[in-house]
Each structure stands twice: as C-alpha cells, then as structure tokens.
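[Meeting: bench + compute handoff]

Bench side (C.D.) handed over the final construct sequence. Compute side (W.E.) agreed to return the predicted structure before the next meeting so the bench team could plan truncations. Sequence as handed over:
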Amino acid sequence: MSLRLACLVGIPLLSCAVPAAAQDFFSGKSISVLVGAGAGGSYDVYARTLANHMGRYIPGQPSIVVKIAGGVGGGVATAVQMEHSVAKDGLTIGIVQQTNVTSQITEDEVKGRYDVTKWHWIGNMAPLRNMLGVWHTAPTQTLDEAKKIETIIGATGRNSPTYTVPAALNQLIGTKYKIVLGYNGAADLNLAMERGEIHGRGANWISVVISAPQYIAEKKFKVLVVDGLTRDPTLPNVPTLLELAQGENEKAAVRLISASGEFARAFFVPPGTPPERVAILRKAFDATMKDAAFLAESEKLKMDIEPSDGVTLDRLAKEIINSSPQAIALAKELIGSK
C-alpha cells in the first residue's frame, strides 16, 4: 500500500499529517547534521546517536551524516553558518553549544549575527548542567583555595560554558581563575590537562562521563561547581552557581546564564525552512526519542535522555531573549562579556 493511500484510508502513520510533496522530498536524499563543537566530545556523541536512528522516521528514510564544524569560539561560526549560509531546505540540521542562545544578548560581538528566536527548533535530547572541575595535580582543589592562588582554566571561546562558568565564579566569589581561550572542544581540553598546560576545564559533566570515564574511576578530575538551576543528581554534594549568588539581582542574572542548559542537546534548522519540512523533522525527532533501539544505544553510551519538543524550545528561546534589561546587564558583568 502506498503512503498516500494509507493516509487516505486512515492508517496512522507518522507522515500523514503533512502534504504528500513534503513527504516525498526527503526520499533519496542525505541530511547533514552540522556540529558546532569538537570531535569526540559529547555534542558529537549525541549527534551521531541521533543520526543512527532518526532517518527511519523520516518519509523516504534519508541517510543522516554528521559533520564536525569545530568548537573554537564556542560554536558561533556554526550558528552564523546555519542562519545565513546553508540551504533552507531541511537538509542541514544544526547543533551548537547551548550558550549560543544567551550569548545573543550577553555578548556584544555576537549580537546581531544570528537570532535564535527565528530558528526552527527540532527538539532537545536532554538538558545539561555545566560544571567547572580541576585536574588532580592542580594547585587549587577547592573554590576557597582558588580565591588565593591563580589557577589556569582552558576554554574554547568566550561564549562557551568553558569560559562563562569560571568567569562568573571570578565575579561572584572572587576566585583567581586565569582563563586561556582557543581549545577545540572537550577532547582537546582533556589532552591539555593531561599534559599540564592547564589546571582544569569547564563544559558539561556528561562530557566526562561519556568521553573520559577513567577520570572518574581513577579520581583524577574533581568537580567544584555546577551551572544549573538544580544540583546534578550524580553530584549531590557539588553546589550550583545559583547557590553561590547573593541577593535577587545576582540570582536573576545567574538564572539567565544557567537557562541555556535547556538547549544543551538541541537541534534546529535555519529560518526560512518550509514549515511542512520542519513538521516532518520534529515528528521524526519526537518518535526517535521513544525508539527502543535508540534508547538502548543511549543507555550503553551512558547518555542522559530527557527530551523536549521543538515548540517548547521556540517558546523558551523567546523568553530568554526577552529577559529584563537589569538581568541581562548583570549577567554580562558576571561572565565578563565584551
């Protein structure tokens, strides 16, 4: 039975809710997933796992290929490329570092280069809590010690959580973290710690769990703070940035900084993508999040899966960008925005 006939007779298929022309569009084609982060990190792992399964839920079952664009600068170049350069046909899906959402309003050098409220969000695989941790040989092993002794922290770029978390700590509690920019993702930062070039790094905790579990088993990496609206269940004794904030103004600004975690593993297509193709991709994403084979692979890789849909992300992006001027101003001050 043809897909079109199945829809007419009422057989419930994923693609029946969109026009037949849109259903046929993806047949025989390849979808690229452009990753604005380094190879081997958790963004890479999440994107490849999604790509392994999502094609089965898109009419025509197109192939999906992951392409690593790199994470230098926090993935801003990928965000700009997705908005302005790629074809707006639904055949290129982007995933960038979650701070690209808040950087639009906190980083003057980013403002105006893209607009996350115009992106068509496909879905988020899981929220994310960022962290700051130090290598076991670092000169400081606690936040209190870091208030007295300079500690070198590696970062990919100013709009990345690898930068914003230590920068906020310097402002909130007076730590003396010296932040060195230019590293290309979690794998590059890990190598720099092992070589002794840096004393610690930020980014997301899951990037350690997935990509460097030996650090945990061998107690070579210590997490000092988590950037999230709540504590990480796997790190119950580690405080959040929000807990370190004092007063309502600081708390409001830190909430804004931490809100980007809701876009941690979020995928999108550029503005101007035909709405019927956006609908197909959103439905395929939602179906993939419930797929048994996908969930089994995710569990094997120790990936957290707590999905949210594209419509929810559209709403959250608008809420963040429309934050109060007072919260935005203080958030910029806390992360040393330029």
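W.E. noted at the follow-up: Residues 3-127+263-322 form a domain with the D-Maltodextrin-Binding Protein; domain 2 fold (CATH 3.40.190.150). C.D. will use this when planning the next construct.
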